[in-house]
Structure formats: structure tokens, C-alpha cells
Write a structure and sequence with these properties.
mainly beta, seven-stranded mixed sheet, 26 strands, SH3 type barrels, 4 helices
């Protein structure tokens, strides 16, 4: 404010002593001769920079005051009001398993630990996606081997250790007053909602969190305002819109909201948003079905396996953590193989980072509501798209 005052004073003095042209002067005189009923006196000073929810009677809320007031109407303050939140606790991402992805197929496996390179394997595995959960590693003359959860041994030369993503959602202390979300792809913001507008020089990386204050459609694209004269295009982010109104059919004050269009999940408890994160739902044609469901079973670990109708599409995912079934074989669960949160990826389940899934598992009860919806209307609702076969 101190920096703005000299500028305002100079502008006011210059305005007072400026000599308008004759036409401009006549227009100004005519206008001044018939003031509007609610206009302040003509000699009223400009208001100091600030937010004015009600039009002041003793100053003109123009210039910086008008700009700040307009920003405040969409929730943009200086400095920006932070959301009362904290990341999902890091210790929740810890699981008592190690994982490896089978990378070369067909991959041999052994019922007992091989002792020499000439030992004959018990069989091979082949398919779309194979992850083993191993508890032991042994190295001998035959090579290096992982012991899977079912007791079989895999040649480490056919597998690679899997490192789960470090992404974490947020635990909220109160419902945010503005929309918020995460950057999906590295991007630079613009000074206006247009690709032809100058760029700001501010870069945002994947999984950075932003607050969204206004939205417009320009040049066929949706744009979000993320700061003063700063805009970002919708396709580069995933947005969460707080809404504490229970979805139709929900009884009680606890529910999980899954937005298929945004690929986000939000948790509501006692009329407050208490958690939010990015997810990966079903990739065509393995959609996650829109509708209202209830959690009917919880398992702290689950091995998911299926041929998906074709041996080439066989998958086996061992010790999937924090599984919560809500729609036949479709479940919410941790996905140690996934680092594509914010984009559809699954065979119908709702993939979450291990830590986020653990938080939700601790919070959720059997019977809690799960509301799955697609605001874009693109996800089919015809029952023929949904079966009871295994998903992941």
C-alpha cells in the first residue's frame, strides 16, 4: 500500500491541473451539471487500495481498489489465502511388501529355489501385466531370484523392482472456499485466457497444487484463473470443486465422491470435505460405472488376476493393498504399479496411491456411500458395458 500512495497522489494532482480540450471540457461540464443521484461528490478522493464489499460513500472505489474488490469476489486475495490442509501422512504409504514387475515374457518360474542354471522351470507366465509381491531374495550359482507371495521363485533377470509413486493427496482441516487441484502435465501460465496472450514466465510441474478462482471459455478452450493476470488451460490440470450437498440417494453424512471427468476423489464427513486426491479410473472399454454404490467388503491385501477374456490380456497383481469393493469386482485400492494419476488407466477399479488408499481404508466403513459420476456425460451407463468379472 505504501508503494501505491505516491503514485495515486501524483495521478490525482495531475488530474486536477490538467486542461481538457474544449470538447472534452464541455462534455465534462455537462456531465458534472447533472450528477447521478447516488454519485459521490465530484471532489471525492480515490479510495485507498483495499477490498470494498459495499460501495463506500466517502471515496471512489476505482483503480487498484476496484481491481482488488473484483478479485475478492472470486476468492482471490493478496496474499492468497492458503487452504487448510496437509499431505497424506508419508508413513501410510509404507506396506510390508516389495514388488517386482515381470518385464520379459514368457518368464520362467520355479516351485523351489534353483541351484544351477540347468534346472528346469516349473512353468512360465505370460500376459498383459504381471507384478509379483516378494518377501525374499536369493542369489546362488543359478542367478538371482525373487520369491513370490505364492512361494514360487522368479528369475530376477526377467523382472524389475517396482517403486511406488510418491504422490500424495491432501487431508483437509476445513472445506475449501475455492476450487483447487493438481497440475497433470508441466506447463507455463498465460497472462490472459488465450494461447495468443503473453506467457507469465511461471512454470508448474506435474502434481503441483493450484487454486482456481474463475473460469472462462475462450477460443474453444476452458481456462482457469490461478492468480492476478494468470491463467492456465483446463486440459493441463484436474480440478476439485467442493460441494457439501449429499448426492441424490445418499443417506447420512459420509460419502466418497469420484469424478470420472476430472479423475479426482473427494471424501465428505459430517458436511465437510476432509480428503481429496487424484485417481485413475477405468480406461475404455473397461469403464468405471457411474452410479451410487456402497462399500460392501474391505481387504487389507488382495491378489487380483484375470484373463480379461484373452490369455494375452492375462494380468496378475499380487498383494494389492487397502482394497475396498463397492461395485461387484470394482474396488478402490492402492496401485503400486501406477504413476499416471489424473488419467484413466485401470480395468474398472479406482486406482489410488498406496498412502491415499491407506488413508481412505482407515476412514471408510462397510456401507459407506460411493458416488461415481461423469459431468461430461461421456462415460456410458448402458449395463452391457459392465460385467462382474475381475477388475483392477
Amino acid at each position: 500500500m505504501k508503494r501505491l500512495m505516491p503514485f495515486l497522489i501524483i495521478c490525482m494532482i495531475a488530474t486536477m491541473f490538467a486542461k481538457p480540450s474544449s470538447v472534452a471540457a464541455q462534455s465534462a461540464t455537462a456531465t458534472a451539471a447533472v450528477p447521478a443521484e447516488n454519485d459521490p461528490p465530484v471532489d471525492t478522493a480515490l479510495c485507498l487500495p483495499g477490498v470494498y464489499p459495499v460501495t463506500p460513500a466517502d471515496c471512489l472505489a476505482l483503480g487498484p481498489a476496484k481491481t482488488l474488490t473484483d478479485y475478492a469476489k472470486v476468492g482471490l486475495t493478496f496474499p492468497a489465502t492458503p487452504i487448510a490442509m496437509s499431505p497424506t501422512p508419508a508413513d501410510l504409504a509404507t506396506v510390508p511388501y516389495q514388488y517386482a514387475k515381470v518385464t520379459s515374457m514368457p518368464a520362467p518360474f520355479y516351485d523351489s529355489l534353483p541351484n544351477s542354471k540347468g534346472d528346469t522351470p516349473s512353468g512360465t507366465v505370460d500376459g498383459e501385466l504381471i507384478f509379483i509381491s516378494y518377501s525374499d531374495t536369493e542369489t546362488n550359482d543359478a542367478g538371482r531370484f525373487y520369491q513370490a507371495a505364492d512361494g514360487t521363485w522368479f528369475d530376477a533377470g526377467y523382472a524389475a523392482r517396482a517403486v511406488p509413486t510418491a504422490f500424495a493427496g491432501v487431508v483437509l482441516q476445513q472445506t475449501p472456499t475455492v476450487d483447487f487441484g493438481w497440475v497433470l502435465t508441466p506447463t507455463e501460465s498465460y497472462t490472459a485466457p488465450s494461447y495468443s496472450a503473453p506467457k507469465t514466465g511461471k512454470y508448474y510441474q506435474r502434481y503441483d497444487m493450484l487454486q482456481f478462482y474463475a473460469s472462462v471459455t475462450a477460443e474453444g478452450m476452458d481456462w482457469y484463473q490461478i492468480g492476478p493476470s494468470e491463467w492456465i488451460e483446463k486440459r493441463t490440470v484436474a480440478r476439485v470443486t467442493p460441494d457439501t450437498t449429499p448426492p441424490p440417494g445418499v443417506t447420512g453424512d459420509r460419502w466418497i465422491d469420484i469424478n470420472l471427468y476430472e479423475q479426482t476423489l473427494a471424501v465428505y464427513d459430517k458436511g465437510q470435505m476432509v480428503f481429496a486426491t487424484l485417481v485413475s479410473t477405468g480406461l475404455q472399454p473397461f469403464y468405471t460405472r457411474p452410479g451410487l454404490f456402497q462399500i460392501y467388503e474391505k481387504k487389507d491385501k488382495e491378489t487380483m488376476t484375470d484373463y480379461a477374456g484373452d490369455p494375452a490380456g492375462y494380468y496378475r497383481l499380487e498383494d494389492v493393498p487397502w482394497t475396498m469393493y463397492f461395485d461387484e469386482a470394482r474396488a478402490l485400492h492402492g496401485a503400486y504399479w501406477n504413476n499416471s494419476y489424473g488419467y484413466p488407466l485401470s480395468h474398472g477399479c479406482v486406482n489410488m496411491s498406496d498412502g491415499d488408499a491407506h488413508w481412505l481404508y482407515n476412514w471408510a466403513n462397510v456401507g459407506d456411500w460411493v458416488y461415481v459420476h461423469d459431468p461430461s456425460g461421456q462415460t456410458p451407463t448402458d449395463p452391457k458395458f459392465y460385467t462382474s468379472s475381475s477388475a483392477y
